Amino acid sequence: MSEPPAAVVRPTPRRVSWAWAVPALALLVIIWVVISQASAQRGTRIDITFEDAAGLDPGAELVHRGMRVGVVRTIELTPELDRVRVRAELAPHASGLARDGSRFWIVRPELSLRRVAGLETLLGPRYIAVEPGDPEAARRASFDGLTEPPSVSADDASALGAGVSVVLRAETAAGVAEGSPVLYKGVPVGAVTGVELAADASAVIVHARVREARLVRENSRFWVTGGVGVDFGIFRGLTVQAPTIDRLVEGAVSFATPNRPGRRAEPGRVFELHDEPDSDWVGWSPSIAPDEP
Questions:
Q1: For site-directed labelling of 6, which of 14, 25, 103, 271 has its Cα 20 to 30 A away?
Q2: CA-CA-CA-CA dihedral for 65, 66, 69, 73, to nearest 10
C-alpha cells in the first residue's frame, strides 16, 4: 500500500512595502542639506606666525577696512618654542584674503613720533588687521605676521604710482618718517616713501611721492609741519601754534606753489625741506587746471 503524497506548503511571497522609503529618503535629504549648509558656512582655515601674541586671545577678530573678515580659533607655540602660531578662520566672503602677498599684523596701541594707531585697543580687545595681496596671486594657507603695521599700504602705493617723486634735503628729519603724509593746503596728496642720511652724512634725504603731479612746480616750497610752536613778544604776548593731535606726534611735509606756477617739476627733482614756511608761502593760492602743463 503506497503512502499518500506529502503536502508541500509553499510560503506566500511577501509584498515589499515602500511605506518606509519616503521618510528615510526625507531624512537623507535633511542630512544632506544640513551638511551642505555647515560646509558653506565654514570659512578658509589659515595659520599666521608671529613673534609674540601679547594681548591676543582666541575669538579675536580679523579686520579689513573696518569689517570683520575672520576669527582667531587657537593660539599655540610653534614646535621650536620661539614663535606663536595663530590658527584663524576666514569668513566665506573673505576667502580671497588667503593669497600670496596678504599681510597680517596685531593691532596694539601705538603713540610715537611716527604714528598714532590702535588707540581703540586701549579699552577694547586686540585684533589682527589684514591687508590683501594680489587677487590673482596663488592661494596659500600659512603666513608670517608682521611685527608692526606696514608704513605705506599697497593701496596707498598704487594710488601714489601715478604721481611724481621728489627728493627733499633737510638738516634733520624733524619727526618725518616713512609713511608721513605730504600735504597741500592741509590736504593729504602724497606720502614720504623713505628717509635716509646723505652719502656724506651732512644732511637728511627725504624721498616723497605726490600723486597730484601738477601741483609740484620748479618753484614750489616744502617745509615740515608738526610739533608745537611758541612765539613770545613783549607787545603781542604769548602765541602758541599747535596743529591737530595727529600732527603733534607725527611730522608731516607741507608744500605750496606760487601764484605764478613754474614748470612742472621733473621726477627726482631736489628741493630744500625748510623747518618752517615763510609768511607769504602760506598765502599762495594758484589756480592750476588738471591738464595744465
A1: 14
A2: 130
pLDDT at 63 over 60: yes
Tally the domains of the chain: 2
Q: Which residues contact residue 144 at a Cβ distance below 8 angstroms, ignoring those fewer than 6 apart? A: 48, 49
Report how far residue 119's alpha carbon sits from residue 24's, in angstroms, rounded to the nearest whole number: 57
- Dist. CA 45–CA 142, nearest whole Å: 9
Cβ-based burial of 4 (10 A; exposed 0-12, middle 13-18, buried ≥19): exposed
112 and 165 both lie in a single domain? no
- Local structure of residue 290 (DSSP, 8 states): T
Extract the C-alpha cell encoding 45.
Answer: 582655515
Residue 8 resides in a domain: no
Which amino acid type is present at position 269?
R
pLDDT band at 54 (very low <50, low <70, confident <90, very high): confident
Q: Structure pTM? A: 0.48
If you average pLDDT over residues 48-58, what whole number do you get? Answer: 89
CA 98, chain centre distance (Å): 15
CB-based contact 281:223 (threshold 8 Å): yes
